[in-house]
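STRUCTURE:
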């Protein structure tokens, strides 16, 4: 039976780190996080012990080369090099196979989220031949995304954020609509307010059994590459501050409604003046 690769598609601050951690708590899933950042993390020595112990330095070097989509041999064009390396089954351009060989999990979860990354990975012959591909489009109310951008990227204006959000959402919708099979749309708000049912839906989509204990994701070790630092910090604080018997899923996973009090009505008007009705399908009733 083929292993699976699940790509998570979405905008920044859509809840992908939370979903990734939950899926990573299932024994049949291994979440790599934002795999596109592996070359940079490896170069800076920021990979955790799992990556450094399970992979040799040569394997990490090869992974970094393959994932960076850069020319390896200066005298050979990249397309030609890829063609011949794939013929001889060279591991440099088989990153998911290398990762799959290091874990008993049946599903590799890549939460890089961008169309550029997913499209470039889908061109890998190893994915076409050796894996079943799944796509999960994670969406969130644009007003909440706007607020996260304002808080975390203070060098950006509301206008810049709004145009960026509009472009990403428009392109994501088209990519998702045109994706050939094995796709599902999930709302962050449903994940936060109807957690067991939403995770059950994702598990059914992936063909794995739902396990209630996966909702207590802070109880497990995770080795994801990058991702939302706020979500990970909250998880670590929660894990360190409570005794095992006191852990409660609902006390950590809550709907983020901070935008209701943190951004002004004028900011919301500026956002809608740019995005028009594009956010209408994603608006959440916070009453």
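SEQUENCE:
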């Amino acid at each position: 039976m083929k292993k699976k690769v699940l790509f998570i598609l979405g905008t920044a601050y859509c809840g992908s780190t939370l979903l990734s951690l939950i899926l990573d708590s299932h024994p049949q899933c291994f979440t790599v996080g934002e795999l596109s950042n592996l070359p940079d993390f490896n170069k800076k020595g920021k990979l955790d012990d799992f990556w450094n112990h399970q992979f040799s330095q040569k394997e990490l070097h090869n992974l970094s080369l393959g994932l960076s989509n850069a020319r390896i041999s200066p005298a050979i064009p990249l397309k030609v090099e890829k063609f011949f390396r794939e013929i001889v089954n060279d591991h440099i351009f088989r990153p998911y196979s290398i990762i799959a060989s290091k874990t008993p999990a049946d599903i590799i979860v890549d939460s890089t989220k961008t169309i550029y990354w997913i499209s470039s990975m889908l061109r890998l012959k190893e994915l076409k031949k050796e894996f079943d591909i799944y796509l999960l489009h994670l969406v969130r109310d644009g007003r909440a995304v706007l607020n996260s951008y304002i808080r975390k990227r203070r060098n950006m204006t509301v206008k810049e954020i709004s145009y960026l959000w509009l472009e990403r959402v428009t392109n994501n919708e088209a990519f998702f609509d045109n994706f050939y099979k094995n796709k599902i749309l999930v709302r962050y708000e449903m994940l936060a307010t109807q957690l067991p049912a939403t995770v059950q839906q994702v598990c059914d989509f992936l063909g794995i059994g739902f396990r209630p204990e996966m909702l207590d994701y802070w109880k497990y070790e995770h080795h994801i590459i990058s991702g939302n630092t706020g979500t990970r910090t909250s998880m670590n604080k929660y894990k360190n501050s409570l005794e095992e018997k006191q852990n409660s899923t609902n006390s950590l996973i809550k709907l983020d409604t901070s935008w209701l009090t943190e951004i002004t009505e004028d900011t919301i008007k500026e956002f809608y003046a740019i995005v028009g009705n594009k956010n209408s399908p994603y608006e959440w009733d916070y009453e």
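REMARK: The chain has one domain: 3-140+181-244.
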